[in-house]
Amino acid sequence: MKHKGIDKEVALKQIENFRNGFPFLSIVRPVCIGDGLESLPESRSKELAERYDRLSAGKKIVKFVPASGAATRMFKDLYEYLDGKESAAAEKVCSNIDKFAFYERLKEVVPDMSDKKALVEGIIGDKGLGYGSLPKGLLLFHRYDDSSATPFEEHLVEGAIYASSEGVSRIHFTVSPEHKEKFEELARKVLPEYEKRYGIKYEISYSEQKPSTDTIAVNEDFTPFRNSDGSLLFRPAGHGALLANLDDIDADIVFIKTIDNVTHRSHMGDTVTYKKALAAILLDAQSEIFALLDRFEKGTDATLIAEAEELLTKKFAVTLPDAYGTMSPEKKAEYLKGKLDRPIRVCGMVRNEGEPGGGPFFARNADGSVSLQIAESSQIAPEDKHLMQQSTHFNPVDLVCGLKNHKSQKFELKNFIDHSTGFISKKSKDGKDLLAQELPGLWNGSMSDWNTLFVEVPITTFNPVKVVADLLRPAHLA
Question: Are 455 and 396 in contact (CB under 8 A)?
């Protein structure tokens, strides 16, 4: 534990979590348009995008891209096909092979393109393209007239268009240690071309999931699980562990978007417009909060308290706790300042068309208040499942964040986590069953105590590649 930087008390608390379990989120109702979710007419979104272009001048902007892990699950159907299982998905890939951006490169390693087994082995095998062991960010996703591009490159394009300031685009990728060198190699190869094309300089940085965020694994009787050599087993704790990486970012505006949620440049218009619109909404909300906090520092009066109440309840859809009504003016001021002086996030939400993802809900907090939260299905009690079925939207991991306070000081993000929102799952190692624990999700419990706004964005901004056949969807083709 010392080697990993894990405090003994933290590990003991994690074991206690295994014993006690995590409570379900106290869901009040699903969010919908007009009740916790803002819908933007096209004209309004364009107006906000133009406003962002003005407001962002001089701001330090970072695009934060979770890009860890191999793309093994993306090729699950192809692996099963090689194991002898009939697969309609594998047949679809083989019959449309010439439509994939990696087709030309595949032809170089597969002499007989009519041999389906050789074709599949050529895609995922180490003697071919080796895509089964590479991260998604390094796979060829999109084809253009004279080249093909990886998600890494598509994020460079997005960064140049909406996440740049003063001629610099800063993009941070969280990567696995075994893949970092390959990302750096690709960056060295392509950055000069993209800098020339967009007339910009890139500052690309990388970080790895910190060993100190790993969580202890236990046997089914809650005793610590030990490896064959007797050492304790610690496991990566899910995307919530990346909060520590996000906390290291020094920026005025941070865009968060996963590595595989990119689109062909010919379809990128909505993505750019709505990213900018979300950021303008963030900056406007931040300005309102900062103005109130500056006034609170000079003194408190009934007018200021009323304005703060209105901002929290109307703009941020917070329901104040019952106890608030019995507080003295001084206590109310302290409570309101605490609620205002927090990190802020604006989250894009798309209409639920059957894709998996966390949904937007009103949830009750430990202090009795009700606020906007993103909840995963596993966080919702069986008796509340009907509320999830009523939910009309879900979160595609489309966030714009403000991580600094009204004095331009960075918040300590660990202070705003709801630690009761972790996850427990069943895993195995060396043929032995174990229980694993994930930290509160990055955009779920890790941001539970943030000021939050939900904004509807069009489904055209959500184009994840979960399986290789997703690359045949129109959003990924010219």
Answer: no
The pTM of this model reads 0.95
The alpha helices in 30-73, defined as continuous H runs, are 42-55
Q: Which of 450, 36, 39 is nearest to 277 (CA)?
A: 39
Residue whose token pair is 């990388």: 206
Residues 130, 107: Cα–Cα separation, whole Å: 14
CA-based nearest residue to 454, from 342, 374, 336: 374
Tens of pLDDT, residue by residue over 148-199, are 999 999 999 999 999 999 999 999 999 999 999 999 999 999 999 999 999 9
Tokens of 451: 């000021």
Report the alpha-carbon distance of residue 320 to residue 317 in Å, rounded: 10
Amino acid making up residue 443? W
DSSP string for residues in 237-293: --GGGGHHHHHT---SEEEEE-TT----GGG-HHHHHHHHHHHHHHHHHHHHHHHHH
Residue 273 in contact with residue 266, Cβ under 8 Å? no
Place of tokens 């106890």: 323
Say which amino acid occupies 135.
Answer: P
Give the span between the Cα atoms of 307 and 293, in whole angstroms: 11
Separation CA 245–CA 251 (nearest Å): 13
Is residue 324 within 8 Å of 312, Cβ to Cβ?
A: no
Question: Could you give the CA distance from residue 478 to residue 145 in angstroms, rounded to a whole number?
Answer: 9
Q: What is the dihedral of CA 235, 236, 240, 244, to 10 degrees?
A: 110
State whether residue 57 is helix, strand or coil. coil
| Amino acid, res. 236 | P
Question: In this structure, what are the phi and psi dihedrals at residue 303, rounded to the nearest 5 degrees?
Answer: -65, -45
User: How many residues make up the chain in this entry?
Assistant: 478
The per-residue pLDDT for range 113-148, each reduced to its tens digit, is 999 999 999 999 999 999 999 999 999 999 999 999
